[in-house]
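Feature request disguised as a bug report, sorry. It would help if multi-protein outputs had a clear separator. Right now it looks like this:
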Amino acid sequence: MSVVSVPVKELSLCVIAASPEALPKAQDWAQFFACPLNPLKPEDYFFHFHVEESRVYVRDREKRLLEIDFDENHLDYERKGHRGKNELVAKALGVAKGHRRILDLSVGLGIDSVFLTQLGFSVTGVERSPVLYALLKEAFAKTDKEYLKSYKLHHADALTFLKEQKGKLEIDAIYFDPMYPHKKKSALPKQEMVVFRDLVGHDDDAAEVLKEALTWPVQRVVVKRPIHAEELLPGVRHAYEGKVVRYDTYVVG
């Protein structure tokens, strides 16, 4: 695995190799994160990135687990009974217009990205969190699902990626699902999401990211929002509403 060091300055992170066989991969990820490998006092670190022969996962100091595995499907990666081109997100992205090449600016746990791929879209994903990127990269490498083999994953800040890659990628539509502030801890879902939010934080630059996305030579930019949230920026042409979320569509070209 070829990696470029990405210091994880804001996270208290170490890498734990479970066995001698897992050591080479663990060394690669420790180099990528620029963090300690098998420290003498792992309890001094809030996040532990565990590397085993057949899996990788993260635990925090409270022993909460975050793991991404597209084949085990515990986060509903394989959605049964979906409505294909009639799914709201497919309509929002312009499937009826022939839009197939999608740029996902905030892959996160990969749930929406994988679903878009399952629906037949060709997806290029961007994830800024180095830890989530590592989990995703390992999950894509491990999966047996053929439709995920062509997924293109990038580790980058969305705003920087948009500025540097404008005009270099053939993309029909952009999808953006920014993190929104969660005011009540009691509203947090299961343990994976607690760890996820601790790793990712909030997208304070979401409006700026959307503004830059709207300058791209694409047909549509779609922003996923809570059903009652205000528009991220004015100019929404269509809003596709579900029970708890909606997809705000900005028509660009």
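(second protein starts here, but nothing in the output says so)
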Amino acid sequence: MPAITVEDLLVLPRLPELDPAATRVRPVRQLVTAPIGTEGEGFQVRRGFAGVSMQDLDPFVHFDQIGEVELAPGEPLGTPWHPHRGFETVSYIIDGAIEHQDSNGGGGLISDGDTQWMTAGAGILHIETPPESLVASGGVFHGTQLWVNLPKAKKFSPPRYQDIRGGQAALLTTPDGGALIRVIAGDIAGHAGPGVTHTPITLTHITVEPGARVDLPWNPGYNALVYALNGSGTIGEERRPIHMGQLAVLGQGDALTLQADPSQESRSPKLDLYVIGGQPIREPVFHYGPFVMNTRQEVIQAVEDYQAGRLGVIPAERLPHTG
């Protein structure tokens, strides 16, 4: 995977050794397999949260894995201009590239470990498209998109865009150097990621070597969700099997135990996990299409505001390429 890597993991800061007598490892409460759906102009995605209750997902709303897929020339697709209100989108590119532009002036090119973090807040229009070079040549594409809810008091926050380069993530490893932990947002064992969110969360991408184990300290006030991007392994002290395209919903505790199977497929030589958790908002959620509000009436108002052009105006010119 081209997402940020380190040649020698042993040079990185290391997770603390956890005391088994004083640690509550979170058990697996639910394991679901993501169904395949269609997004944007027709590209396939895995719907990572399908079948999970909003109560267990809170403060998250939606999660898609795009790829990993080998695209022929002309096949890469994106999304048309579309609106959002009431939440944040977090797009993480593991392999390939995507261009973003929004009606608030944010955007640019992200690739290979970069993250674009867009706060829709009061309302925004945006578009995500593959760069012309990728459309012309084809190639591998692999990424994710996460929706983070905003509490009622912050749903009308001003729109904001964060361009987070892969090299900005906090990097650490396990005591034996068996995994690369990329902290994109939040804090793990005192190592803070660069992402800034209105809703307190932790977001990390972990690559686990075959047979290696990760004992990850976790905020006991957060929920915990583990999605397998690639490979196979186990979750929890009960060693619940998990493989690519599955999401584990974990129960209460202050640590996560993750382990890669000793033998992995040749196309997925390591276990890659997208691990997220956050402070539950515990407010009503009314989710309709690109709007995440508290009530049906607020969504109706969002639709009316969009139709009236109050969520933004499509820029006349494309942003220049950045990276």
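Even a blank line would do. Unrelated, but nice: The two ends are 19 Å apart (CA to CA).
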